[in-house]
Amino acid sequence: MKYYAAIEAGGTKFNCALMNQNKEIIDKIRVSTTAPEHTLKQVVDFFHQKQANFTIESIGLASFGPMDLNLNSKNYGNITTTPKPHWEHFPLSRHLHEKLNLPIHFDTDVNGAILAESIWGAAAKCNVAVYITIGTGFGGGVLVNGQILNGIHHPEIGHMLIPSDKVGHCPYHGSCAEGLASGTSMAKTWNMSADKLEDTHIAWQQEAEYIASVCHNLIVTLGPEKIILGGGVMQKTHLFNLIIKETENKLANYLPLSSPLDAIIVEPGLGDISGLYGAYALAIGKGNHSII
């Protein structure tokens, strides 16, 4: 039996699991994302304990970003300009590689999630699909013809600008998707965390309009067969119908779609563990970025 270390590194928490070649979780922990020295000590200690009893083949890391995925960069595998305190320009991939003395295969959390969804979830058999997570931040991964899309950088869908008369909370762009629609931004706008807002609160209609703008832009530019919406904010499942309705209004019957919108804009097939399964997919060699 082969074993793998899967790490979904999020802005709020690190989900870590020891998994076997059958995609089964042997053991797992959740570690709060605080300062790197505190968070990563717990992560490394967990896997060191597992190495005492299991031969781990490799690490799969699906991380919040942005990440430097340029193989020729001296900062390859680093987190870059994140607004997350203490993590800006942190060499996360290399740190884990050196501390655990294992090959590491890495990508962004959303790239990992769309990879996992394409293999085992809602994006199976899709030529073009997008996974969006809306939680602490707002990010998206794109799959085209079975390959994760990376050009001069990985997609930063969360920093797509959205027409709005509101002042957003992104420190770089203000009124981008992350600045307007992330869980963090919702809490700042309404002085209350998203999970505390009643379903009838006006915040959800506004949130639907922002997310629908992103969906509209993705549909007219990429033509995805699936737009998978995950993350903590999307736990408010009534939001899906609002988003679908608003997206339909924005598209204004311009494009003939091969499927109804409620078959395109969908929930994750893997539930709330798309990111962890994405890390596993990277660990078993389904990705493109590694430090050996």
Automatic annotation (TrEMBL):
Q: Broadest EC class? A: transferase
Q: What PROSITE patterns does the record tag this protein with?
A: ROK
Cofactor(s) essential for the protein: Mg(2+)
A molecular function (GO) term: ATP binding
Assigned EC number: 2.7.1.4
One Pfam short name:
ROK
Q: From what superkingdom does this record's organism come?
A: Bacteria
Q: Does the keyword Nucleotide-binding apply?
A: yes
Catalytic reactions of this protein: D-fructose + ATP = D-fructose 6-phosphate + ADP + H(+)
Concerning PANTHER family, the annotation shows:
FRUCTOKINASE, TRANSCRIPTIONAL REPRESSOR MPRA
Q: What is this protein called?
A: fructokinase
